[in-house]
Amino acid sequence: MKTTGTDRIFTGTVYTILIVCSLVVLLPFLYVVLVSFATKHEVLSRGFFLFPKEWTLNSYQFLFREHNFLKAFQNSLWITFVGTVINMILTSLMAYALAKRWLVGRKTINLLVLITMLFNGGIISTYLVVNGLHLLDTYWSIWLTGAIAPFHLIVMRSFFQSFPIELEESSRMDGCGELRLFWNIVVPLSMPAIATFTLFYMVQNWNTFFNALIYINDSDKWPLQVYLRQMLIEAADSSMSLDIEGFEYGPPVKMATVIVTAVPLLIVYPFLQKYFNKGMLLGSVKG
């Protein structure tokens, strides 16, 4: 097919816009990475720059010697792992049940799920419930309050509804019970959906901040995001800006903390990418 001059201009314009948008997104990230390898004196004296004159690993060495940072990193890993397991088990089981048209009360439950997407109980009432269940200062206050995301549940339900009824009937004729049918048939065929929402829930749990700030008062149980907030507060107070070794919570340390916080998700994403790309079309096409 022959391309015209108008087509070339249009293609060139599209590529130019995409390149500019990519640079706008990439530049702040690149700045954060490079500043983390600079010295505090250079950051404060030079202002904006991309390539440090003096490269150093002092910020990362400080972080990995800092007990509070290592503890917060460990807490975030635990919150993310257990929380994602809870999220996926409850979401997939509930979505599978709601995909069954013969389920008694299915329409009512679906309506209640939809209502939670529009309204919630509010911060005060949720806090009172968490406090009444004696969950304050425990990770259950984070895991249970965000156990099922309504939007993820609805999309996964639509995915399960796209399964042919003949597959279910033939499995039952072979003696499969409901749990065995779900585990041996549905789960293997649902890997794109499971991988997609696993990634979404991992990001949600890894970035948990507000719930942890409200429900977790014990500093030994803080996740990384709350630790980073505390670091910024301490850095703003000149009387608290030095640790016992005299290394300041300067810009390089803050940037290094941001980079280390983002690394686990950057490592996990490539392993889920092939499923994630398929899962982005969940519920849009009936199979």
Helix content: 55-70%
Main sheet attributes: strand count, strand direction, barrel closure: none
- By secondary-structure content and strand pairing, the structural class works out as mainly alpha
Count the E strands: 0
CATH first level: Mainly Alpha
- CATH homologous superfamily placement: MetI-like
Structure described in brief:
The protein is mostly helical and 287 residues long. It has 14 helices and no strands.
Write up what this structure looks like.
It is a multi-pass membrane protein. Keywords: Cell membrane, Membrane, Transmembrane, Transmembrane helix, Transport. Belongs to the binding-protein-dependent transport system permease family. Residues 73-272 form the ABC transmembrane type-1 domain. α13 packs antiparallel against α14. The chain starts with a helix and ends in an 8-residue tail after the last helix. The model is unreliable at 238-246 and 283-287 (pLDDT under 50). It is built from 14 helices and no strands. It has one domain (58-279): MetI-like (MetI-like fold, Orthogonal Bundle), CATH 1.10.3720.10. By secondary structure, the chain is mostly helical. It has helices at residues 5-35, 40-46, 58-63, 67-98, 106-118, 123-132, 140-143, 150-161, 165-173, 178-189, 191-206, 210-215, 224-236, 251-279.
From the structure above, extract its key features.
disordered C terminus, transport, MetI-like fold, globular
